[in-house]
Design goal:
Chain lengths: 430, 310
């Protein structure tokens, strides 16, 4: 190759490279470091697109920034659906922010994986928080949440009355037989595509969150909570098989859809179902849809009604370089005033009694007070073990197989075997 | 048919006329059948788009109420622009759209230059190890991106970055990290290579006799003769760049550099806003549709020549 040609080729390549770098190098979002020398720390939240909660968090951040001059918190919002992937990717790159929110059941795993640092000196601030809203692992507090949510059976008073179905209360919830009777009456009315909607078309964390409480109400569980080493006897014992048979029976009898629609609340609002198994987050749209919507306790399948506990919580990353700033923010944000602010703007259950008194509807006797009572009476934390993400996906697969007709005992035995193997392979997360 | 054949046989009807008429009829029949089949196929692909656009004008409750029947595809009932207003209130749409356009166009422009140059070297110049190099490049085609995502993340996180003022470490949360890794593309190199290989080598020799160097040959002879290949590569680079989801999810943290495709997650909350989701999906589909309409012929040619579907 001639030297002049080589020079030109080199020059051409350099021009292309420089142009590309110039074109692409001008902009940087600016939020990857966990802290900077000027006292600015970054906060990540899963609320992009959720104006209510994002607005409330922004208010807390603004108030904190205005309340002192030592630190500055910079908020960055991510969409919820892909938040965990973003955090995991950032953790792999060692670029986690100082403060971030975490879905409650993931706290032990993220603490074990070294993403989170324990929150020191917050025992007093968190003393009156709902137990399900404080993320603990290995006797240390890693996170706290402003709110919890509650699973409920939603219906309309007119539907219950027309079909002669007793309205259950927190003191006297439906029994298994009563619930079966209610479904039979709704089916006999011929007015509904399905008597009930258990939101079986939803995916992800919904399955363990929504359906493991039924398992627990039968007396089973996802893992033996004495030592979190094995699921044997609780996930594949007689109570668990009874749960699986009951769950499969609902779909086999046509009481629920094998796979519900994309938005069960909308289907309920359109009169396609008589009872909806969902959460307190449907209160606003469904009260708007009907003036006689009722939010009922879930069914007592033997061991009392159970619901999943733990929602989004706040913690500090283990790579945060300005832990003083992060601690200052987390203490500031834990005040009743801000718990009330977030709960009001999201219509979720405020985590402290003090905040509950300030949130319209959640005061004693208020229309939403029932959700707080359900959370206090029925909530069961998802297993507090770093192995939970694996347990959740294994349970989800087993429950889906059972709903589709797989043999309950064989399916639960396999799930138990898989969970035990994972716990063992990870040395029980010691 | 047998009656016609008889008339032809006994001479009462000209055989030529019969065959043309028969051919016309069977040809028309086949054309009608093909048209019907094509229409059905068009419906299969068109109805989801129609549903998306129609639903973007309806409130959530009505979308689900209409689902059971043909009304789902008709702009009837409580029609309005509320969902579109909601979209613009909920996401920084202009920013996301700009980001997507910028990232896609920069990837296409960079890709055309780099990949055509690489293909030119492999197709027109002669050097030791040329075939091996081509084979190695092609071999990378079998590695799915998902396998490379995490190593690539670590790699870009260690690279030095200059933001115009100072150097820092790591490319996360930049335009660069969404563009540069996708500029060099084995498939594009292969397409260019195939095309360049069909251009007579005598052109190079003639140009060299006239004093042209390799870069001049590339710039003044090969590139001007490669319009179809350039269009094909441009289209096949633009579409995946526009549709990128996993990678931007991993490497962007702020809305300043987040592309439109990730923005669709903004509408998937506990209570999903289906109408707004459909409106957003409609709006981010528009640029691709405009591109398709403008370059319809090149689209079809590119898919036919590359064997790429879907």
């Amino acid at each position: 190759m001639k030297s002049s040609t080589r020079r030109r080729l080199t020059f051409g390549a350099a021009v292309v490279t420089a142009t590309t770098l110039l074109l692409t190098g001008c902009a940087k979002g600016g939020g990857t470091s966990s802290s900077s020398e000027d006292g600015t720390i970054t906060l990540w939240t899963h609320n992009a697109g959720n104006a209510g909660e994002l607005g409330a968090i922004q208010t807390i951040v603004d108030d904190f920034n205005a309340s002192q001059s030592d630190y500055e918190v910079d908020l960055q919002a991510f969409p919820q659906d892909s938040y965990n992937q973003s955090v995991t990717a950032a953790a792999a790159a060692k670029k986690l922010p100082c403060i971030m929110d975490i879905d409650g059941p993931n706290v032990p795993n993220w603490a074990w994986a070294g993403y989170l640092a324990p929150l020191e000196g917050m025992d007093e601030e968190l003393s009156d928080y709902l137990p399900t809203t404080v993320g603990k692992y290995d006797d240390e507090i890693y996170s706290y949440g402003f709110y919890d949510v509650s699973l409920v059976m939603v219906s309309r008073q007119s539907i219950l009355d027309e079909n002669g179905i007793r309205t259950p209360t927190i003191d006297q919830p439906w029994t298994k037989d009563e619930f079966a009777d209610a479904l039979a009456k709704l089916k006999a009315s011929g007015k509904y595509e399905y008597p009930a909607d258990f939101a079986t078309g939803l995916t992800g964390e919904w399955w363990p969150y929504a359906y493991s409480p039924f398992l627990q109400s039968f007396g089973g569980d996802l893992i033996d909570r004495d030592d979190y080493k094995s699921a044997d006897g609780v996930l594949n014992g007689p109570e668990a098989v009874e749960w699986a048979t009951w769950f499969r029976g609902l779909a086999a009898n046509g009481d629920i859809a094998l796979k519900s629609g994309s938005d069960p609340a909308q289907d309920f609002a359109n009169g396609k179902t008589g009872i909806l198994y969902s959460g307190s987050w449907t209160a606003v749209p469904l009260r708007k849809a009907f003036d006689d919507t009722v939010f009922l306790p879930t069914v007592d399948l033997g061991q009392g009604p159970k619901i999943g506990g733990g929602s989004w919580q706040w913690g500090m990353s283990a790579t945060c370089e300005n832990t003083e700033a992060a601690s200052a923010y987390l203490k500031f944000a834990a005040q009743d005033e801000y718990v009330a602010k977030v709960a009001t703007d999201t219509n979720n259950i405020p985590t402290t009694p003090g905040a509950a008194a300030e949130v319209p509807g959640f005061e004693d006797g208020g229309e939403n007070d029932i959700f707080r009572q359900y959370a206090e009476e029925y909530a069961v934390l998802r297993p507090v073990t770093p192995g939970y993400p694996f347990i959740a996906t294994t349970f989800t697969k087993a429950a889906q197989d059972i709903l589709n007709g797989a043999d309950p005992q064989a399916t639960l035995d396999q799930a138990t075997k898989d969970i035990d193997a994972n716990q063992q392979q990870n040395n029980y997360f010691q | 048919m047998s009656e016609v054949l008889t008339r032809v046989a006994d001479g009462t009807q000209a055989p030529h006329t019969v065959s043309v008429a028969g051919a016309d009829r069977s040809g028309r029949g086949r054309a009608v059948l093909v048209t019907v089949l094509k229409s059905l196929l068009a419906l299969v692909f068109g109805l989801p788009l129609l549903f998306m656009i129609v639903s973007s004008f309806k409130p959530d409750t009505q979308i689900f109420a209409d689902l059971g029947g043909v009304r789902a595809f008709l702009p009837v009932g409580d029609i309005g622009l509320d969902n579109y207003t909601g979209v613009f209130d909920r996401v920084p749409f202009a920013q996301f759209l700009f980001n997507s356009v910028f990232i896609s166009v920069a990837t296409v422009v960079g890709g055309l230059v780099v990949n055509s140059m690489a293909a030119f070297v492999l197709a027109r110049m002669r050097f030791r190890g040329q075939k091996v190099m081509l084979a190695v490049i092609l071999a990378t085609l079998i590695v799915p991106f998902e396998v490379m995502a995490l190593p690539l993340l670590w790699e870009v996180n260690l690279l030095p970055y200059f933001d115009g003022v100072e150097f820092s470490q790591g490319w996360l949360d930049t335009y660069a990290v969404q563009i540069v890794p996708f500029i060099a593309n084995a498939f594009s190199i292969f397409l260019f290579y195939q095309y360049f290989d069909t251009i007579p080598k005598e052109l190079d020799e003639a140009a060299m006799i006239d004093g042209a160097g390799w870069f001049r040959i590339y710039r003044s002879i090969i590139v001007p003769l490669s319009g179809p290949a350039i269009a094909t590569v441009a289209i096949l680079t633009f579409l995946p760049a526009w549709n990128q989801y996993l990678w931007p999810l991993m490497v962007t943290q702020s809305e300043a550099v987040r592309p439109a495709m990730v923005g669709i997650d903004y509408f998937r909350q506990l209570n999903v806003s289906w109408g707004q989701l459909m409106a957003y999906a409609s709006v981010i589909t528009v640029p691709v549709l405009v591109l398709f309409i403008a370059f319809q012929r090149s689209f079809v040619n590119s898919i036919a020549s590359s064997g790429v579907k879907g």
